[in-house]
Description:
By secondary structure, the chain is an alpha+beta fold. The chain has helices at 26-37, 43-50, 54-66, 99-107, 133-143; strands spanning 4-10, 70-76, 85-93, 112-117, 124-130, 150-157. The strands form two sheets. A four-stranded antiparallel sheet has the order 4-5-3-6. A hairpin with a 6-residue loop joins β4 and β5 (124-130). It is elongated and about 60 Å long.
Amino acid sequence: MPRSTLHTVQATAGDDVAPLSSPDDDLNRQIVRLLQDDGRAAYDEIGQKLGVSGGTVRNRVTRMREAGMLRIVAVVDPVAVDYEADAMLGIKTAPGVAPSAVAKRLDFFPAVVYIMWVSGRFDLLVEVVCDEETELAGFLNQHVHGQPDIAHVEVMTRLRMFKNQFLLKRHVP
């Protein structure tokens, strides 16, 4: 059974966000850092480390969650799971096709775990993770190769993993 860790996702704050819900607040940044290490940590434990009460931590987390700036989610530890086949795809979209259109089409598939619009020779970098090599080959044949919205794809398969630090965070130094 793969291990899983809990991480936090923090979104950008809007102008109408209360200061205590703000990701720019120093205490909130410290709380988020500790939750990134262990999303199941008790509020009292976090409070002890930060010199505040567990109630203060609970209130801060609640405010950030209600403001839509913090989510606590389960993420499979990529180091613990040894998938049989994964690849990074460098995709150049077809002329007249927006990268967002291809990203939206590929986002539907569970094997696609990462999509980024990039500059340079590719328009998109897409990571695909599969349990078996045949699953990866099938995905490429059905949804990538020969598709009219993709002009060119370079498939880069993993030879060895040196580091994979999957942290879901934004605006947290």
